[in-house]
Amino acid sequence: MSDTATPSAPNVLVASMAERKTARRERWHLLRKRPGFIIGVFICGFWTVCAVLGDRITPYDPFTDRDGLSCGRAPCPPSSAHWFGTDKIGRDILSRVMMGARDLLMVAPVAAVLSVIFGTILGMVMGYYRGLVDNVLSRIVEAFLALPVVMVGLFILTLSKDSAVLDAISFGSRNVIIIYVVALLFTPIVARTVRSTVLGERDLDYVVSARLRGESSLFIMTREILPNITAPIIVELTVRIGYSIFTVATLSLLGVGLQRPSPDWGLAIAEGRDLLPADQWWPVTFPALAIATLVVGVNLIADSIQAVYER
Amino acid sequence: MSLTTSRPGSSIGALALDVDDLHLAYNVRGIPRPVLRGVSFHIEPGEAYGLVGESGCGKSTTAYAALRYMPRNGIITGGTIKVDGDDITSMNRSQLREFRVHKASMVYQDPGSALNPTIKIGKQLIESFTVLGQSGTEAEKSALEALRKVQIADPARVMGRYPHQLSGGMLQRVVIAMALACDPKLLVLDEPTTGLDATVEAEVLDLVRTLRNETGAAILLIAHNLGVIRSMCDRVGVMYAGKIVEEGEAQEVFDSPKHPYTMGLLRSLPRGGMHKSQSALATIPGTLPVLGSDLPTCVYIDRCPLADDTCRTVVPPVVQVAPGHTARCHHIDKVSEIAAVVPSTLREAGTDTVLEITGVSKTFRQAGHDIPALVGVDLSLTDGETLGLVGESGSGKSTLAKAILGVHAPDAGSSLTLDQHQLASKINKRSADDKRAMQIIFQNPDSALNASWTVRNILLRSVRKLTGKDKEAANARVAALADHLRLSPRHLDMKPRQLSGGLKQRVAIARAFAGDPRIVVCDEPTSALDVSVQAAILNLLAELQSEQRTSYVFISHDLGVVRYLADRIAVMYLGRIMEVATTADIFEGPNHPYTEALLSAVPSVDGEPRVRIRLDGEIPSPANPPSGCVFHPRCHRFIEGVCDVTEPPIVEVVVGHSIRCHIPPDELQRLQALDA
Predict the structure, then answer these.
(1) Among A273, B219, B523, B609, which is disulfide-ready with B48 (CB 3.0 to 4.6 Å)?
(2) Is B408 exposed, middle or buried (0-12, 13-18, 19+ CB in 10 A)?
(3) Among A210-224, A246-260, B502-516, whose mean pLDDT is lowest?
(4) What is the DSSP letter of B489?
(5) What distance in Å separates the CA atoms of residue B275 and residue B348, rounded to the nearest whole number?
(6) How far apart are CA A284 and CA B605, in angstroms?
(7) Mean pLDDT calculated for residue range B125-150
(8) Residue B149 maps to a domain
(9) What's the rounded Cα separation, in Å, for the pair A229 and A224?
(10) Nearest residue of A to residue B302 by CA position?
(11) How far is CA B106 from CA B60, B111, B256, B438, B547, in A?
């Protein structure tokens, strides 16, 4: 230690401000350092590019069999011309898999966002009011949770085929109905998560203080509590997107989701399923791998965000 | 084991702890930030040594370093630590483990988190004996014996309990029993009584004192409560910014401090019967330097009233003031100059009754059982008056405050009048004026302020909502409020987490005063703060009260603080008021036996001798209150056949001083004089 020094009164405030700013950037910093996050972003980025550009970057037209009979008869196994082979009516599977990301990536994230919005509203009401309101809503939510997701989806989507009401609110689009159904299926799950977070928050002194100055319940929920529970909601959203992709694919596989001629992966698996016994594995395998990579990619991102937020 | 050469005056054998020029840094984002800057001290075998200082000064880091417990980013950059002669800085993992098993133990601040909630007490305790190599049955015997040693009445039963089934005081005893299992040479206690009530604290400290005599373990005690340090320790080190700035015998350091920092700390405490009407509290301006800042000369320079050019250019020498008493300062001869009293210019409390509450009860219902948390409370409050509410946790202080505020609606039959008009029991039924009239300052400013709002929005919203001012007028009011509470304009655009504890509490106070309240409930507003910050907040509260004639309901477990700020004090037990009187009368006596016990439990920094009255057991559950006088099972003046049969009457000793006790005041006075 030196004997002499110039008087350096450290500006405590400026220093601590700088510290805070770094701390705010820290989450992003930490995220970027996680290999899981990088891989996840890479995978999801790839599928997003496919979805956006679609048939502009596919090697063949995904909807026709123009070049599909290179091997003589459909389906062709993977070859240098058709890397993933062709399906039973001669369409290029690589092109269809790339194109298949479009419908899924339009439907699944929107459904997840809707479920998080509804679930947050429901969960906040349950957690904030507690008592009778919470008791009634909680039982309904639990009843809903007891039903298998796919069963309910199947039921509603099957019925919806000739429902005028559903037709009206979905603007005649099948995709919109699927969005509604998946959002409805996930809302109770999100509501439960949000409810427990609100329960932890609503007895904190700042809420008491807001009540003491006469704020309305709506104000307290939306302006006081909501900004403080965004972290778990964001985590929930990323997790829901992963599940939502899976659910939409499952519904399509069962034939009630996206419809032909969509190159949707679930649908493609359903169509190629009967070729499996004939050792024609490629029409099923590649779309299945596509679903797997996308779900894994989204979950890698979700896990990283969760780990960083709940650090 | 190697033996170090003993210091002059010490007995043969190694020092229990010898820390020599310890430098320690925390690695933050790749940059080492110094936390300890050359800490040197030693503890003789069997000696008790205390470390004091504000939070962030490095005392806990030092305590943990004594056992080489460090966070992963902590690195020792220089110096040595020797425990019982062994250098622990150079030990490898297995040596370190062996050392911790046999030589040293630690007791933490929160006993609840020091024990595993899913394992029975007995199993956890037995484990600390089996690691020493004892067999199962031996260990069980030792565990029972250990519990007996820490004065647990029914050890066999406690062994079969889970941690959540025991009170904080009991848990801390168990933790101490575990720490003493290996018969350590060194016992480190890190704020062992901080979360506990004064009465329980007194018992735990008594226990530690007894055990120290029995086992001969040396003690390193960390506490922010200077009274605790004084009553427990032989010698004390005062730390600031990673350095020990003064060291000496506890009594001497506290009675004649020689370093400006020690002086500042001691003067910011309300002590020796000080009252706000006589003098304001001294404060230490500024804050602790930021972690890792460059402090080439005196570490205290930025906050020291005596700092001059010498201090800025020359490293202060370690000056020997008296044998064994050293201070690191250029100006020890000038330190007494700091001690000028700051005269008080406060107005006295008025005589107009602002709030009158009669027969206020609150019964919670839980699983079909009635739990009476408040039973027939009568109190009144005049303008500009501070009413102190004291009592152990669970006595109903906070419930009473919340009932007054309307957060919990009191039971039917309770009556609250504010300025002669009846108040609605629930907050949302009260008029805008009534809402404005009563506000609260919470204990913990972290949870009291919405973390996602800026300070400006927090204040602005309160001003607009409470006063109905338009945006422009409200903005002006916020600026005025901030100015009044010495918050600078740039603080207004920060989020609470960017502010220090003291500043956060100022924001909370500003918010409470946004609409010129008549009554402010202060729920332990300074217990989360350091003493120097506490002094500034208490001064501020007193000034605001004197200017605006606001009345305070001041809840605190710190009797020193209550004595300083309160005009009257109400003592609560199990939801009932046991005694109410002016502050002077409470400290004068005669007192209710419960008050007497509370007063005797407080360890004083002035070290005056007093008779300790031990309160046995815990505060009972309000769901099942004792018969007769609710205090009788713990009362040291219990009269059989009377106290446990009939409820005591409220007796007025002098005007304004009433006691709820069967023993007449004259008799109480006589008994209490006999004991003193």
Answers:
(1) B219
(2) buried
(3) A246-260
(4) G
(5) 12
(6) 80
(7) 91
(8) no
(9) 10
(10) A9
(11) 12, 11, 31, 45, 48
Cis upstream peptide for A261 (omega within 30°): yes
CATH number at residue B556: 3.40.50.300
Could you tell me if B360 and B428 lie in one domain?
A: yes
Residue B421 DSSP class: E
Which CATH number goes with the domain that contains A233? 1.10.3720.10
User: Is residue B31 within 8 angstroms of chain A, CB to CB?
Assistant: no
B426 and B530 share one domain: yes
CA-nearest residue of chain A to B520?
A212
Any domain includes A25: no
Distance CA B590, CA B676 (A): 12
Q: Is residue A92 part of a domain?
A: no
From chain B, the residues in CB contact with A20 under 8 A are: 497-498
Provide the sign of the torsion angle of the four alpha carbons A17, A18, A21, A23, taken in this order: negative
Contacts of B294 in chain A (CB under 8 A): 8, 10
Beta strands in B191-304 (DSSP E): 218-222, 235-240, 243-249, 279-280
Residue B256 confidence (pLDDT) above 60: yes
Q: Within this chain, do residues B362 and B500 fall inside the same structural domain, yes or no?
A: yes
Per the structure, the complete domain to which residue B476 belongs is given by 353-571
Does residue A23 sit within a domain? no
Q: How far apart are CA A98 and CA A271, in angstroms?
A: 17
Token digits of residue B494? 């920060």
Domain match, B553 and B600 both: no
Q: Do A208 and B315 touch (CB under 8 A)?
A: no
Q: How far apart are the first and last CA of chain A?
A: 37
When divided into structural domains, chain A yields a total of: 1
Contact A22 B29 (CB under 8 A): yes
* B423-444 residue pLDDT tens: 998 888 999 899 999 999 998 8
Residue B327 falls inside a structural domain: no
| Domains held by chain B: number | 2
Q: What is the CA radius of gyration of chain B?
A: 26
pLDDT at A1: 34
Complex-level ipTM beyond the 0.85 threshold: no
Q: How many Å apart are CA B518 and CA B434, to the nearest integer?
A: 9
pLDDT digits (tens, 9 = 90+) for B161-209: 999 888 888 899 999 999 999 889 999 999 888 878 888 888 889 899 9
